[in-house]
Amino acid sequence: MPRTKCGATVVLTMSRKRNKKGQALIEYAFLMVLLATITFAVIALAGGQIMGLYGDVSYELTHLTDPNTVAPDGTVLSPGTTPGSGSCPAGSSLELRGHKWICR
């Protein structure tokens, strides 16, 4: 095999390896776009539930030492009492979540 033919083969192999680096970068970019799209979709679909959960956790953290509970209509109840059954719409029941009574 002549030396020039061998040298051309090495150059051709090197140029093919360089092209694969660009391909990996494009695949990585597509993967990042896909993950970002899935993340935004999950936040859009479950945003209301996440916001409600954040509100409950925030309320509990600001009222850690508060002995009173809060009824669904916003009135403060003394410890150990349950709000009246008329404070929730028909078909829902009261549930105590930390310091707050919630209609579920």
SSE run: HEEEE
Strands side by side in the biggest sheet: 1-2
Determine Rg (CA atoms, Å).
31 Å
Number of discrete helical segments? 1
The end-to-end distance, rounded to whole angstroms, is 82 Å
Characterize the biggest β-sheet.
Answer: 2 strands, antiparallel
Q: In percent terms, what proportion of residues is strand?
A: 5-15%
Average of per-residue pLDDT values: 79
Name the overall outline: rod-shaped
Q: What structural class do helix, strand and pairing data support?
A: mainly alpha
Low-confidence stretches: none
The total number of structural domains is 2
- The residue fraction in helices comes out at 55-70%
Strand segment tally? 4
Question: What does this protein structure show overall?
Answer:
- The protein is mostly helical and 104 residues long.
- The chain has two domains: 1-62; 64-104, no CATH class.
- The protein is 58% helix and 12% strand.
- The chain has one helix and four strands.
- It has one helix at 3-62, and strands at residues 69-70, 76-77, 94-97, 100-103.
- The strands form two sheets. The protein has a two-stranded antiparallel sheet with strand order 1-2.
